[in-house]
Amino acid sequence: MEIARPYLLFLGDVPDALAAKTAIGIVDWRKDWCIGQVRLEGCAADTGLPDMSVPEGAAAGARTFIIGAVNAGGRLPDHWVASVVEALDAGMDVASGLHVRLRDIPAIRDAAERNGRQLHDVRHSTMSFDTGKGSKRPGKRILAVGTDCSVGKKYTALAMDKAMNERGYNSSFCATGQTGVFISGRGVSLDAVIADFISGAAEWLSPATQEDHWQIIEGQGSLFHPSFAGVTLGLLHGSQPDGFIVCHEPTRTRMRGVETPLPTIQQVIDLTIQCGRLTNPDIRCVGIAVNTAALGDSEALAYLAKIGEQHGLPATDPVRYGMDVFVDKVSAEFGAP
């Protein structure tokens, strides 16, 4: 799948920044690939890119219209269809990370055909996967896991990969969601893989490699989330991590989208080790990544110090304070590069 750049990002009229995490993630890691954003009336998210109309984006040279917003169920709202058709009529390709296939929407399919444009459904892999085998394979792996959805697993994995490469490790990022695929150019949206093949897809994504090569794997969902735990467990078994990082947002009391209470960090550590030992008996936690965006600086630092001491693990906000403490832990546990 070759997605033409630069991008024009569509945010629709989503109610908050989390619902636009695809667009925001692309801007945070690939801002130089982006020209602007298109927002409908009432949109409460903002990537910081210039606001443009679809014709303005086309005139500025945008080649692909990225649907950078998500909703429960991964549907394309009916009132967004006109903007997608407008982009196709303006000469752009369209790429989506939603569950719904663009070609299954007649107005979009017809517009693509009459304009000779490409429709990219990033969430839907063209690969066929085997079932997971669980056999030990060479190489080292770190998986980001979470106390909930949308707590920073992708950012943590990307930041860890960057930090490890800067410290001399041979490291690569493995994308398991649509935004990660947009950012890395390779990966599998595991939540669109048939359940029996999730662990096999994770094995394909993080294959056998040199013993000194670290694969840093983007996490999905949470073992404690009643909606998404199945994907999380399959990813854990298939990725066979040597280490994992727990990602957490400290102001939540309920899991996103449901009434289930948030688990504790220790519960996530314990259950991840218990389940992960099926495919890697030596699995261990190497740190706690906290999204402290809602906390002031002194409050954030105090919170990180407290939970680090409670769990005997390094704790940091990957965006705010960097990843050096995690790389130090990996070096102490597994050896320097």
From TrEMBL:
Residue span(s) of domain D-glutamate N-acetyltransferase-like N-terminal: 40-124
Domain of life: Bacteria
InterPro entries: DgcN-like, DgcN-like_C, DgcN-like_N, P-loop_NTPase
Record domain D-glutamate N-acetyltransferase-like C-terminal: where: 131-326
Pfam family, one: DUF1611_N
PANTHER family from the UniProt entry: DUF1611 DOMAIN-CONTAINING PROTEIN (PTHR40690:SF1), GLL3100 PROTEIN (PTHR40690)
Name of the protein in question: DUF1611 domain-containing protein
